[in-house]
Please model this.
Amino acid sequence: MEIKKNNEQFYIGDNPEEPLAEMTIVLNGPRQLIIDHTMVTDELRGEGAGDMLLAEVVKYARENERKIIPLCPFAKARLEKDRDKYTDVLDK
Model:
């Protein structure tokens, strides 16, 4: 599965308007980003697409020196479950 980025959307699929899976972010000032939505279609459910999208957003945050505010329940649960792996990018 290839992760693509379109503005503030990380997605899987050929069309960003109709992705098979997506995670959207909102840039909040120069140092934060908010993960506000994750969606995975039934076609990709159980294939780890959400975790792959989250990994790309974390990579993006690290590369751009941004802290993550996870408002999306999926992202929040995953980041808090492995909090030690993400202390450098989680906003306090």
